[in-house]
Each structure stands twice: as C-alpha cells, then as structure tokens.
Amino acid sequence: MSADNVIEIRNLSKAYRDFWGRKKVQAVNSLTLDVKRGEVFGLLGPNGSGKTTTLKMLLGLLFPTAGSISVLGRPAHDVEKNEKIGYLPEESYLYRFLNADETLDFYGRLFNISKSERRKRRDFLINEVGLQHARRRQLKEYSKGMTRRIGLAQALINDPELVLLDEPTSGLDPIGSNDMKVLIRKLKSQGKTVVMCSHLLADVQDVCDRIAILYAGELKVLGGVHELLETQDETRILSSSLSDAAIADVKAVLARHGAECKDVSHPTATLEDLFLRTVKESRDRPGRRIVTETPPGSSQAS
Amino acid sequence: MFREVLPFDILGGFTLWLMTTASLVGVILGIALLVSLVLHGGAFLGNFSRGTREVLVDLVDVSPRRIGAIMQVTIKESVRRKALLVFVVFVIVFMFANWFLGGDDELSSAKPYISTVLMALNWMIIPVALLLSCWGLPADIKDRSLHTVVTKPVRRSEVLLGRMLGYCAVSLVMLAAMGAVGYVWIIRSVPELARDQLIGRVPQYGTLKYLGDDGVVGIGKNVGDMWEYRSFVSGGTKSCGVYTFEKIDTEAIRAAGVMRLEYKWEAFRTYKGDIETPVRFRIYLINPDTELTVRISTRDFEIQEFAVGSEDTVIDIPIAGISPRPGADGEFYVTAAGADLASVGGQFDPQHLNLVDDLIADGKLIVRAYCVDNMQHIGMARHDLFIRLPDRPFMVSYAKSVLNTALMVILIVVLGTTASCFLKGPVATILTFGLIILGQGLREMMDDLLKQFYDKESPGILGGGPLESAYRLLHQMNQQSELPENLGTQFIENADQGIMHTVGLTRNFFPNFNHFDTREFLANGFDIPFDASVLAALAVTASFVLPCYVIGYLSLRFRELEVK
Q1: What is the pLDDT of residues B58-77, one digit of tens each?
Q2: Contact indicator for B373, B236 with CB cutoff of 8 Å
Q3: What is the mean pLDDT of residues B118-136?
Q4: How far apart are CA A61 and CA A89, in angstroms?
Q5: Which chain B residues are within 8 Å of A81, Cβ to Cβ?
Q6: Hey, how many other C-beta atoms are within 10 angstroms of the C-beta on B137?
Q7: B318 pLDDT band (50/70/90 cuts)?
Q8: Nearest by CB to A110, which of B81, B149, B561?
Q9: CB contact, 8 Å: B82 with chain A?
C-alpha cells in the first residue's frame, strides 16, 4: 500500500444474496479507487448506486464478495484499524436511552481513553457541536439535527485520522449544514482524511477535493472536483459593475480577439448564502425585516 | 427426599465435557476447513490457519475496559427499560401472599411458605433473564446501535462478553433483592408451630444392601408397589436392610455429644388386623472391624402403615455417659438419656462404652434394620436412613438455594445471549426456553432411556425406539409383543438404533436444569449439599459458558450486521 493512500480498494464487488444463495442485487461491481491522505473525498451516486455499501465494506460491516480493501494499511475486517477511524452513520445509530455526556463517555471508553481525557474531549466536542444546553437529555428527546450533531461528536471522540461520513448534512438545517461543512474543512486543515457519501451535490462541491461517481455499483467518474467541473473552452471574468458603454467596449474587444460574449449578467448569490446572511442579520438586529415583495395585506416594506 | 443424592463426579464430568467440547471444536474446524476450501481453492490452508489465528486472538485478547463499558450500557439499558419493575411486582405479590396461605396445613408446616418463595423466585427471574438476554442483541442489531459500536476498535467477543455480563449483573442484582425479600417473608410468615422446621439438616447417607429371608445378600422384596423406590424386608426372618456409612465425621459427632439417626421407612402389611397396630422393627449398630453389635433400645420401634411419610423420626444416641442396666430377657442393656443401647454380642466393657470409639471403625459404621412382626414388611431406600450431622442455620441453606438459582440465571443468560447472536429475539427466546424445558423434563427421561438402551443386562427399551413405537401404535400392538420378522421391521430396528445413538451423542448439548432445583432440600428442612447440588450446578453452568462464548462469537464474527 502506498504511504500516500489511506484507503485502497481493488476490484471490489458485493452481491446481495437471498436465503438460498441466489444473487438478488449486484451492489458494487469491480470498484477500484484510492483515497489519499489529507483529502476530502466524496462518493456520489443515485440511490442504490453502492456508495453506502462501499462505505460499510470499508468498516467491516459487510463482507466483500470479491476484491480487497485496505484501510490505513490493514484489511477491512481488522478491528484495530478502527482505532484511527471515526464514523458517522447515515442515521445516527446511538443508544437512545443515554444522554449526550453518557454517549460520548461510552464511545470514549471503547477506545480505552482515560477518564480525564474522556472528560476533556467530551466537553470540547459537546461545545463544538453546540449541544451544551442538551447534554443531560436522553437522545430519544433529541431532534434529528441534534442527533446528527451528537453522532458527529461520537465520530470524533478518538481524534481520528480518517473520518467516514455517510450523508453528513442529511437532516440538518442550512445553519447546521454549513457548520458541518466548516467542520469538514477544519478536519482537512488538521491533516485528517475525510470520506463522505452524499446526495447533496452542492455540499460535496463545496468541500470535496476529489470525487467518485458510482452508478449501478460501477465507477463512472473519478477525479478532482476542480478538474472535473472546469470548462476549458470558456473563460469567465468577474469585475465590479460596468456601465452599458463599458460592456459594449468589452464585447468589441472580445470580438476583435475572435471570442464570443455569451452572457453578461449580475452574479447571483446562492440561496444558502442568502439564508445564512438573513439568519445572521436577524440574530444581530432582531426586528429588522428584508423583503423584495410586499406581503399580502401589508402596506409597506422596510 | 426421594431424589438420589450423589456427590457430583467432578473428574467424570470434566472428562465428558472435554470429550463433548473436543467433538464440537472438531466439527467447527471441519466446517471452517471446508468453507475455506470452497472460497479460496488452493490457498485454503493458509487462509484457514490465518483465520483460526485471528479467531483465537479475538477470543483471548479482550479488553476489560471495553467489556466494562458495554456491560455498563447493557445495565443502563435494562434499568431504563424498566426491567427492575419485576422486583416491585415480586414485593407486591408477597405483600398479599399470606392471604392464600392461611389453611390448617400451613399452620404446622414451613414447607408451603418455602416452596412459595422459591417458586416465585424462579417464575419471576427466569422470564427476566430469558427476555433480557434473547431480545437485547437482536434489538441492538435492528436499531443498528451495534453498528456504531463495532465500527470502534471493539471485538465481537467483547460485545458478547459485555452483553452477557450486563444481563447477568441485572438479573443477579434482582435475584439477590428478591431473595432477601423472600427470606424476610419466610422468617416473618412461618407460623410459630413450624418455626423449628426452618433448619438445614445435614444428612450423611450410607449405601444400602438387602439380606433375604435366609440372611443372604439379595435385592429386597417387591410388594407390588408401582413405585419402585423402596424394596422391602420381611418381618420375623433374617431379612434386613444393611446400611453402611463411610467417612463419618466423628469429630462433629464427638463435639455434638450424640449421634443422631433419622429414618423414614414405609410399612407394608400382608394382613391388616387392627389397622392402628403399628409394624415393629429393630435397629442394630455394628462395628465393621470388631463386629461388636449393639441394639438400639430395649423396646422395638414402631411404624404406622398409613402415617409413613408424614413425619421423620429421629433417634439420638449419646456417644458416652451411658450406664449399664440388666434387661428382663437376660441381655445386658445400657441406657442413656433419649435412647437405650443393648449389647447382643462382641467384647466390650459396658461401663466404658463409647459410640465413636467402640462402634465406628475408621469412620465406618454398619446399621442393620429388621422388621419384627411376622408376615409384615418394611420398605427401605438408601435415603430413608441417614446420620444427621449437626444442623446448619436455615439462612445458610437458603443462601445456597439462591446461589443455585443464580447459577441457573447465569446459564440462561449465556444460552439466551448466544442464541440471540444468530437468531431474532422471538426465535432465540423459543430456543432457549425449549432448552430449559428439555433440560428440566426431558433430560432425565432421555437419561433413563439411554440407560436402558446401553445397559447390556437390560432387555432394552420397552416397546422399542421411536419408530418401533410408532409401528406398534399403527398396528395396535402392545409393548411386549414380538415384532414380526421382515425387512421393514429390521429397518425400523436399525433406524431406531441410529436414532438412539444420535440421542446419546447429542444429550450432552442439553444442560441438565434439574441440578439447579433445590426446592426438595430446602422445603423439607435439609441443608443443600455442596458436592451433590451446588457443585453440580456450578459444573453445569461452567461447562456451557466456554462453548457458548465461542459459538456466540463465531456467529457474530461471521455475521454481516448490515446485510439487506
């Protein structure tokens, strides 16, 4: 295994079979890919494409039908590799009768972390995921977003080298989703490797360095996000606002160089940006309202 | 007390366990080798040895801290799922139990009170242990909370051990609490008249052989009783029951100052006459070395035909301080408080007769019992006569009884958790419950059948094996009729042989739950013998822990938790 690679998958196949051993579904078919140390890697694909199956084979929850997996230099079924892995499942499968403190303490004990260190990490992570106010409540009383947060905290209790996130932003509101992305970037900046599965392509695009797109269990696309999305035969120039005359001049210059100006418009922010900005401003200045249309029954807009 | 009380053969049991476990390991390794051959072809041997090494490491190299964490979560889970409510139910039951135990019989006997507590303990704790252990792991897998655990550096063996220990801890704490409540209830509820029954009698049993009418060793008489527990000796003949006691604790007897004999024989009358006239018998103590023979009491002992079984009878024989007295029949008797001794032979100085020194030789003593009345019979069994060593407190016996129940609970948890590693909750419950039923009821029946089957001197199983029985049923043949000789019946007989051999091989996979049952001892005022009961229960539980651990681990290890 190359020292640069955290995960090496070679010709990995997985077929689900029925009770009689007859093949039901070929979930993954001859998958080969590497995940490099320190990168954020995205596994994409529609439902049933095999991305979660692949993740679960990495964790030893499922056994491959064929092929091999090496995670941190060890085979997937070797439990000792888990010392350096953090895993956030698609649904946070935690013990619902425990509270946040007990949950993190329990998972910390599974890593043989000392009591004082567990307490320190527990306090830090609960603070990090914003659950200080609910740390003594049983998880069964948590909302889905809160459950995802405590799920993330348990995934990080061992300060892992490799973090596997299955639909990390699923169930989170845009603020939580943004926090998650900030955290993923932070993990990357700490030199950790992150592998995530997601349906939310915008999230993946925001945080991933490399992606693999699976379809029907087969690898269709593999590469850096930037390289894959970059359109080589077009150029975009972003400037401050121009007058109509200036735009005409620019078009003339482009024509002189044999290029065609395809679109001139004001760039739009993403809805996520608008939402986050609105929430931030509402927190800072309660009572202020920003509207572009007059609401029905209202005489003025502020 | 009608159960055969034999010390548990620890060496024999261990040998049997070793053989059974070795067979099981052999089967598992054979299957593993075959699977490796199918999956890996030519490289099967390398993969097999690597897999075996990994399995061994997983089984042995476990982390107490991780096991402790899983155990703690298991306890919390059980507590928060309100498993401890069973204790509250138990307490409520005993708050009103006296309403149902106020009859005349209960005024003079402690037995119903003790039986009620032990029965309630079993009925409450068995379902708790069964349901907790059979449903916990499947629920954990179904909720997928186990998935998060096994993605940590946790071996499946640690999950299994943590779960087993957690369920054991919850069940045992509840059992201890219920046991304490039960004890207090017995002490407070048993009527004044029956208080003296709250003891732990310590019997020392001998072996029994019968002498026939001519005084030669025989097998005792069958008086036509369906129950063959007792054999009978005839009155007015040389027929008698000869009990030989060995390894008598002479120091305990010396310290107590008396040797206490307790008997519980049955009279059988061939002529009735006056129904209230008892059948008489005599008891002699014999030194096996010097043959010094001493008759206990100048009077004959009496036994009522229809009163037998209701009360035990105790004879206290003082070991010293006895004084000589000439008898009316010319024999020389010695008397003492509570009992009379009569010399009928041997050389000794009656002035200085000492029971321990003169009659017990190297811890060995022979007791002979004769029926006096012509044509009448007395039925004797091995456990009908025993030397009663100094009694133990009831609390000690009760604690041993609860200990046996605790060992049973541990076994149920171990079996249930193991079954839940490869079965869903309801099926695991049915399987474990089936093992309990088989182990309680059918195990003894299987043992009896196999004894008949394998015993060379026995004519075989009456009515044949299962197929022959079915054949007889269909052809309306009784059990004694000879089967017609043809190819079909030959096949049936051979197939029955095969079935019985299979039963013989597999019976050891069914734990004998009868070893945990102490009600007979405790309710009848006996101390629970460590070697015959507690040790046996301990051995049964211990013998299943390791195989179940291995089977449960292998089931979890090779199970795809996330399989669709």
Answers
A1: 999 999 999 999 999 999 98
A2: yes
A3: 92
A4: 12
A5: 153
A6: 28
A7: confident
A8: B149
A9: no
d(CA B37, CA B205) in angstroms, rounded, equals: 57
Q: Name the maximum alpha-carbon separation found in chain B.
A: 97
What residue type is A30 in one-letter code? S
- Among B377, B419, B117, B353, which Cα is nearest to B268's? B377
Instruction: Tell me the nearest-neighbour CA distance from B137 into chain A, angstroms.
Output: 13
pLDDT tens by residue, A50-83: 888 999 999 988 999 999 999 998 998 888 899 9
Question: Does residue B485 sit at the A interface (CB-CB below 8 Å)?
Answer: no
CB contact under 8 A, A63 and B145: no
Six token digits for residue B3: 């159960």
For residue A291, give how far its alpha carbon lies from the nearest alpha carbon of chain B (Å). 45
- Residues on chain A bordering chain B, Cβ-to-Cβ distance under 8 angstroms: 16, 24-25, 56, 59-63, 79-83, 85, 87, 89, 91-98, 102, 106-107, 109-112, 154, 158
Residue B370, Cβ density class (10 Å: 0-12 exposed, 13-18 middle, ≥19 buried): buried
- Distance in angstroms between the alpha carbons of the first and the last residue of chain A: 62
| pLDDT given for residue B162 in this prediction | 96
pLDDT digits (tens, 9 = 90+) for B171-214: 999 999 999 999 999 998 888 888 888 989 888 899 999 998 88
Please give the pLDDT value at position B343: 47
Distance CA(B99)–CA(A192), nearest Å, equals 70
Partner-chain residue, chosen from B145, B146, B564, that has the shortest CB–CB distance to A16: B564
Burial class (CB in 10 A: 0-12, 13-18, 19+), B239: buried
Which residues on chain B are in Cβ contact (under 8 Å) with A94?
145, 148
Are A211 and A223 spatial neighbours (Cβ–Cβ below 8 Å)?
yes
CA distances (Å), origin A118, targets A221, B242, B407: 41, 72, 36
User: In what helix (H) or strand (E) does residue B253 lie, and over which residues does it extend?
Assistant: helix B250-256
- Whether B339 and B316 have beta carbons less than 8 Å apart is answered as yes
Over residues B404-451, the pLDDT tens digits come to: 999 999 999 999 999 999 999 999 999 999 999 888 878 778 888 888
The mean pLDDT value for A141-148 works out to 89
ipTM for the predicted complex comes to 0.82
* A62: Cβ contacts below 8 Å, ≥ 6 apart: A14, A53, A56, B560, B562, B563
* DSSP conformation class of B484: P
Residue in B153, B560, B562 nearest the CB of A83: B153
Q: Which of A115-119, A163-167, A257-261 has the lowest mean pLDDT?
A: A257-261
Task: Give a three-class secondary structure readout of B524-551.
Answer: CCECCCHHHHHHHHHHHHHHHHHHHHHH
pLDDT score recorded for residue B57: 92
| Cβ atoms of B83 and B89 closer than 8 Å | no
CA distance A95 to B146: 9
Closest chain A residue by Cα to residue B156: A79
pLDDT band at A127 (very low <50, low <70, confident <90, very high): very high
Supply the pTM of this predicted model.
Answer: 0.83
Say if residues A140 and A96 touch (Cβ distance below 8 Å): yes
Question: CA nearest A88 in B: which residue?
Answer: B148
Per the CB < 8 A criterion, the answer to whether B378 and B265 are in contact is yes
Q: Which residue among A63, A79, A110 sits closest to B560, beta carbon to beta carbon?
A: A63
- CA separation for the pair B18, B20 (Å, rounded): 6
For residue A206, the tally of other CB atoms under 10 A from its CB is: 18
CB B478 within 8 A of CB B529: no
Nearest chain A CA: its distance from B145 CA (Å): 5
Amino acid at B150: V
Q: Which of B75, B143, B145, B151 to mutate to test the interface with A (most CBs of A within 10 A)?
A: B151
Q: Does the distance separating the beta carbons of B143 and A112 come in below 8 Å?
A: no
